[in-house]
Design a protein that fits this description.
heterodimer; A: 109 residues; mainly beta; three-stranded antiparallel β-sheet; elongated; B: 276 residues; mainly alpha; 9 strands; 8% strand
Chain lengths: 109, 276
């Protein structure tokens, strides 16, 4: 893909303290570094997203380190709970420091 | 000495019998596909590739969010509204809302185009529209743009039965397609039919052979880690029997695609499907 695209799915509104699921998907080649170029025979260098962080109103609520075993176009789903309405910020960081970001509003009733 | 030989033969016999039983068991112990209720994914004896996939793969296809192919569908939607070419038009300029105007269109492709004077599949038709109506450069076959647009257009027919015409001007192409499908090729001297008609639902090395239907293309293949076209799959199949593959968008593959359309008749369009 020419441009990396991320999509996130957050419920429209949740009850205070209710556990809910957040889904994310990002387009990324996630080259493990093991693939070989068909023409030259040389290994295509590793280029993966190595970190995924989710913050809520600035506070980190979910974070993980990704390694080469994660396949391309990674899908990440996790559970969180919130007490107040606010913004969920998602950040993906790849090996050369490139940061991809996406935000979603959350309405807590 | 004689005793030893007899014993060895006897023990070999036991091993052989056990081996035969194991092989026989393996042939019958296939994944339960026939006999299960697959709903729309089964039409008579025709089984969509969906039914040969693992539950995890099927789950990916069933969820439009989780299905990575939707990254391309989103791109296709963007391109639909994007003005390109000398005429200052976008697809939307003539076709309006794709959900309405493209509904049912892909189900009839490939089809004979009287203006072009040849059989066109959806990819080729899209490019033809770009060139003749928009004055835009045709997209390279298998490029992200053409994949995205083809998938986006075909997705508007999702759930509808495949319904290609094989009579009238399409008839000679259909006959050629049938010939290709049954013609042995390559170092392994195999025809499409040898896997997909003779041995579906059996194992070829570690893979389970399907009936080779095309109703889910362009498809997100886990092997490719991206969306890919039917012609890409054809090339793979031909290479796997060590035959020289034909080109992307070639007449041979477009004609074969028509034959497959006939084989797929009434199976639901699943684009963008997820397959192994």
């Amino acid at each position: 893909m020419a441009k990396t695209k991320a999509r996130v799915k957050v419920p429209a509104s949740v009850a205070k303290g209710e556990v809910f699921q957040v889904k994310t998907l990002i387009s990324h080649k996630m080259d493990s570094g093991q693939r070989k170029d068909k023409k030259t025979g040389e290994k295509i260098p590793r280029m993966i997203i190595n970190s995924f962080v989710c913050t809520y109103n600035g506070e980190e609520v979910f974070a993980c380190d990704w390694h080469p075993a994660i396949s391309a176009n990674p899908y990440m789903a996790f559970y969180v709970r919130a007490a107040d309405s606010g913004t969920l910020d998602f950040k993906w960081i790849d090996d050369d420091g490139q940061v991809y970001e996406k935000s979603a509003e959350l309405n807590v009733t | 000495m004689i005793t030893g030989t007899i014993m060895r033969k006897a023990s070999l016999g036991v091993i052989a019998a056990a081996g035969a039983a194991l092989v026989a068991g393996a042939v019958f112990a296939t994944f339960a596909s026939a006999g299960d209720d697959w709903g729309p994914y089964q039409v008579g004896d025709k089984l969509s590739g969906y039914t040969f996939a693992t539950p995890e793969t099927r789950a990916m296809q069933d969820d439009d969010f989780e299905n990575p192919a939707f990254i391309w569908i989103d791109v296709g939607e963007e391109l639909w509204g994007s003005v390109q070419g000398t005429e200052g038009k976008s697809c939307a300029s003539c076709h309006g809302d794709a959900e309405e105007s493209m509904k049912g269109v892909a189900a009839t492709y490939p089809k004979y185009d009287p203006e072009a004077g040849k059989l066109l599949n959806l990819e080729l038709r899209i490019n033809r529209e770009r060139e003749t109506r928009m004055g835009a450069e045709p997209w390279k076959y298998e490029s992200e743009e053409l994949l995205a647009m083809t998938a986006f257009v075909k997705k508007q027919s999702r759930g509808m039965p495949v319904n290609v015409k094989i009579d009238g001007p399409a008839a000679p192409f259909f006959e050629k397609g049938k010939e290709f499908y049954n013609q042995r090729r390559g170092q392994l001297d195999m025809a499409c039919a040898n896997c997909h008609v003779d041995y579906p639902d059996t194992m070829i090395r570690a893979n389970r052979l399907s009936q080779g239907h095309a109703n889910g293309f362009p498809t997100y293949r886990l092997k490719w880690q991206k969306l890919g076209s039917l012609h890409r799959r054809f090339r793979g199949c031909n290479k796997q029997v060590r035959a020289q593959p034909y080109g992307y968008g070639s007449d041979e593959y477009t004609i074969l695609e028509l034959f497959l359309g006939w084989r797929d008749k009434d199976l639901p369009i699943e684009t963008p499907a997820v397959r192994m």
